[in-house]
Amino acid sequence: MIPAAELRDLTVDVDTGRWSERVLDSVRLVVPAGRITALLGESGCGKSMVAAALTGSLPSVARRTGDVCVTGRVGLVPQSGVTAFAAERTVGEQLRGQNVEDVCKAAVYPMEALDLYPHQHSSGQIQRAALALALLAEPDVLVVDEPSASLDRGTAYEVWASLRAYADAGAAVLTITHDGALLTETGFADSMTFLRDGRVIAAGPPAEIRALEDPYVAGFFQ
Ligand SMILES: Nc1ncnc2c1ncn2[C@@H]1O[C@H](COP(=O)(O)OP(=O)(O)OP(=O)(O)O)[C@@H](O)[C@H]1O
């Protein structure tokens, strides 16, 4: 299996001048092509920092050691979809390309909303617009921060199914999520990695992870 993206002993420290913190500590993570790798963990444990490291967008106050290896082009769907768009132009003006209809369908984005400005969307709608925007660029490595956070269960299922199809077409997909239950029920994820306080505390196929008798991990499957 080809690791399209990999973190090797990644440690990230942030120092704002007023406070400093180790936000990632010796993180090892492999994101293979053709697979969905899910990253889970409590709020503030460092998931978005992993996404930032993989997409070359760590904050300026961050210092890192260790290696970040990415093969091919990487795309990011940020946690807040609205940040993927310029505020002063409609989403339709920014979602341009031959495959717009296809990517909107894959992202379950309602095309009738294309004429709206980013801030005129609901958070679930703009998140799906951001996914459509990322898919338009056909990245080899797709990092999606909370794809189903603002979605009802049915729409979340459709979005996950599209991510599954995108991985099956050959891409390496890393998804940050709290939705362990849906992922194991549907079988959409190939592997899961759990972070706690910036450290990887469990990683493996969903069935193995699900069987762990760790209250921290189990909390994500309720
Ligand atoms: N731009 C930044 N500058 C400094 N520190 C930051 C910055 N962004 C995040 N952090 C810190 O890094 C740590 C990890 O944050 P991160 O956003 O990766 O958490 P997360 O697991 O994605 O949380 P959530 O599930 O709430 O989104 C937190 O302690 C946070 O305060």
UniProtKB/TrEMBL annotation:
Keywords: ATP-binding, Nucleotide-binding. SMART domains: AAA (SM00382). Residues 5-222 form the ABC transporter domain. SUPFAM superfamilies: P-loop containing nucleoside triphosphate hydrolases. It comes from Amycolatopsis silviterrae. InterPro entries: AAA+_ATPase (IPR003593), ABC_transporter-like_ATP-bd (IPR003439), ABC_transpr_LolD-like (IPR015854), P-loop_NTPase (IPR027417). PROSITE patterns: ABC_TRANSPORTER_2. This is ATP-binding cassette domain-containing protein. Pfam families: ABC_tran. One of its GO terms (molecular function) is ATP binding.
